[in-house]
From TrEMBL:
Gene3D superfamilies: Lipoprotein like domain (3.30.160.150). Residues 213-224 have a biased composition (Acidic residues). This is LPS-assembly lipoprotein. Residues 201-212 have a biased composition (Pro residues). Residues 196-239 are annotated as: Disordered. It comes from Candidatus Phaeomarinibacter ectocarpi. It comes from the Bacteria. The lineage of its organism: Bacteria, Pseudomonadati, Pseudomonadota, Alphaproteobacteria, Hyphomicrobiales.
Length: 239
């Protein structure tokens, strides 16, 4: 029995080492680690301004969920990014009896979003995601209203979870050296393609500026002019 126990222990250690090697081979990194990407994901998420989402209860619930996950300390005073979200929802029958009585429904919430960098106005990331929550139907209208509200809350929380994770991953990717180099190249291309300021026209090539000609002590007729001062005269002593 001891041999068997030792063998099982060795197998467990081997399996653990194998899993560690697989994870290392996949270049696994924690999203909110101490790397540059992890710091960028954490700090970048806290600088996202979340705009209003719809004008109903579901939109407010989704916005509150995103604020709790991205900016729990409140909206940033100086945001670096703007998150715009639009939502649509629908109800679909899931379980129907032969007499057309609906016993169960699915509530589907779809969010379309885009992340904008405020400094440049560039759209960094945009996509769509959907989450579904089921609810029971009963003979009580009040119970049906409560069940639908519960489904709406669960769907909004699920969308907020996934959206916050996607934004953190995107911000971490943007902080990678490869993305920083790509952004620098793109910025250099923008500068090169920018229009040149022509407020002050350049100097014509056929008449470049040149210093004035030196005075050659000649008049307009080409003759030498008198010296501005007389030449010095030597004076002998006793004269």
């Amino acid at each position: 029995m001891q041999v068997s126990g030792v063998g099982m222990g060795v197998k467990a250690v081997a399996v653990g080492l194998g899993l560690a090697l697989v994870v290392a081979a996949c270049s696994f990194r924690p999203l909110y680690g101490t790397s540059d990407e992890g710091n960028a994901a954490r700090i970048g998420s806290e600088t996202i301004a979340i705009g209003p989402i719809g004008d109903d209860r579901v939109g407010q619930q989704l916005r509150n969920g995103l604020i709790n996950r991205l900016t729990p300390r409140g909206q940033p005073a100086f945001p670096a990014y703007q998150l715009d979200v639009t939502i649509t929802d629908s109800l679909g029958d899931l379980l129907v009896q032969e007499d057309s009585t609906v016993l169960r429904r699915n509530y589907k919430l779809t969010a379309s979003y885009r992340l904008i960098e405020l400094a440049t106005g560039d759209r960094l990331y945009s996509s769509t995601l959907s989450r579904t929550a089921s609810l029971n139907r009963s003979d009580s209208e009040y119970a049906n209203v409560i069940a639908q509200r519960d489904a709406e809350e669960r769907a909004a929380e699920a969308v907020a979870d996934v959206l916050a994770q996607r934004l953190a991953i995107k911000l971490a990717q943007l902080a990678s050296p490869k993305e920083r180099r790509r952004a620098a190249i793109a910025e250099a291309a923008k500068i090169a393609a920018a229009k040149v300021d022509r407020t002050y026209p350049p100097e014509p090539l056929d008449s470049p500026l040149s210093p004035p000609p030196e005075d050659d002590d000649e008049d307009d007729d080409g003759e030498e002019t008198e010296a501005r001062f007389p030449a010095p005269v030597a004076v002998q002593p006793g004269e």
